[in-house]
Write a structure and sequence with these properties.
The complex is a heterodimer of chains A (341) and B (331). Chain A has 341 residues and is of the alpha+beta class. Chain A is 25% helix and 24% strand. In chain A, strands 1-2-12-3-13-16-14-15 form an 8-stranded mixed sheet, sandwiched between helices. A 6-stranded antiparallel β-barrel of chain A has the order 4-5-8-7-6-9. A 3-stranded antiparallel sheet of chain A has the order 10-11-17. In chain B, the strands form 3 sheets. In chain B, strands 1, 2, 3, 12, 13, 14, 15, 16 and 17 form a 9-stranded mixed sheet that branches.
Amino acid sequence: MIKTIERYCACISPSGSEDEIREQIIGDIKNHATSWEVDETGNLTVFKKGAKASGLKILFSAHMDEIGFMIKYISDEGYLYFDLIGGIDRRVVAGRRVVIGGNRITGVIASKAIHLQKPDEKGICVPISEMYIDIGCTDKESASGCVSVGDIAVFKPNFEHFGDGLIKSKAIDDRFGCAVLVELIKRELPYDTYFAFVTCEEVGTDGAKQVGYRLKPDIAVVFESTTAGDIADAPKSRYACSLRSGPVLSHMDGGTIYDKALLQYIKNVAEENNIEYQIKNVIAGGNDSSAYQKSGIGTRVAVISAPTRYIHSANNVVAETDLESIRELASALLERGFINA
Amino acid sequence: MLDLIKKFTAAFSVTGEETALRSVIEKEAAIYADGISTDPMGNLIVYKKGENSGKKLMIAAHMDEIGFVVTYIEDNGFIRVSNLGGINSISSSYHTVRFNNGTPGVLVFDSGTKPEDIKANKLFVDIGARSAKEAGKKIKIGDTCALTPVFQKLMNNRFTAKAFDDRIGCAVALDSLRNAKKTKYDTYYVFTVQEEVGCRGSKTASFSIMPDYAVALDVTTAGDVPGEKNQPVSLGKGAAIKIKDNSVICSKVIVDRLTALAEKHKIKYQYEILTAGGTDTSSMQLAGAGCDAGCISIPTRYIHTPMETIDFSDVKACSSLLTALTEEGME
């Protein structure tokens, strides 16, 4: 699974431009899925027939898109001005390498060297509107030869193993979720199950809104990254969750109050299978659950998250053991089929 | 109707945890209903067959109230919380609270916090526990709490309580259901969940009902108090017919029809424009291809504090106006 995550993280697929990651996933599942389709806005939905039908329509979902940048203006000097796709802290942007568009042009997000800064500029992070990407071109004409306004960019792929069983990369949010689902699709499943690889989560859970409306699931479980606050200076009451403590289950976040019986069911399954889990203790963030819960006549929703440090930066950091536990929990849930959940 | 108001304000029903109040309402509604169901999000839908089944009228009042959810238990047994809905942290603090399992506590803030810094992240609940272990026997992360119920009669048949928002709307809906001799259209009295966090329950309920006409019942700010300016609604001046709030511009046909019915039946009414806050009206108006939606509001002072205050004559006016609409319909 880790190899798959590495391959998925290398895709250049910010919100609205998910073609590359979707092609990778289709390649991986097409010989294992019972059926699959891509809808008008790019969501990939997969049906896997099980040994029997449980009478419940179960959906497992992960989002394909990542945060990124969009080129909005090319200056006379050949610099690329850009805006953000999704929520990115501008402090993590300056000085980063990015990859732009289909031609995979490498660029650097410019930041003025400390020697050139005026006293009142020191220690200040300039707004995104004043940052630009330098692609090494001499002027507007040469830059326009390889980049156009409307092209997208993402942090340069940078997957690495490090520390005690940790991995870091851009876009682990939510390529790991995609990889977990692909692993499940490759297996023989006891019950009929639907899988969704959705678009545009980072800009407002847009893809899931359509998948929810179309599939009308009874239960939707979202696989996501959530922010781990086990970092320097944070009090324990603000950790949200910690690395190496297992899958994160949520009562509530900024977008959703989760189904209580379903949460209890997932806890029970985890305990029966000796899978250590943790409960998110900060009410913040949101994910595709909010879209699924409110679609149609309503859907019972749950989220299973990977504790992720430095989420929405060029270096999402996760523990391999947490990802393995999430796969085990997902697999145990499908074995039980949510009967009486 | 006072019996219903007392019962409803006493029941536990914080956003996302509306089961207890739902059972109370279900019991009260059962003998008047032609059908009762609960949907996946937990909305209670009470159906009453109409003379003309060609049209559907949806009535919505929300069961949930603002409150707090446990996020962390400190080593010394103090319980950290986060807000559920737009709660006023200053007015809620130094007040007793009750958890969903009945455990009592006091809601206070970090000692030395300046008044302007009092936010949910400065609040904690003291349940008397001496350690995290002791607190953990009663309370776990994800548990919810609300201010302890208060119900007090004031002068002039005015009452104060926490959570009149929107138990008073639930009581008006149920009172009107009890009093209606007939319903013109197939009528769905919906007691919704999770209104206080963005009208979530009413979205799915209106999707499944797809009404032709819809009326929400909710509280609105009464501006007849010191410090309020340019807020026309007053206590004792009757049912407030909503023109707009931050989430909706009410359909003119509903505003006009409610006005005509109030005039016809000599029910005291006033018009209302709420400049902050939204209601379930918006979800109903936008469901499916859309419908004509409006709202009957109960004038209320000190909304989202432990002492929301109403005038009982207004509540009765709201109930009469709703009954006129359900009995006589749109023409």
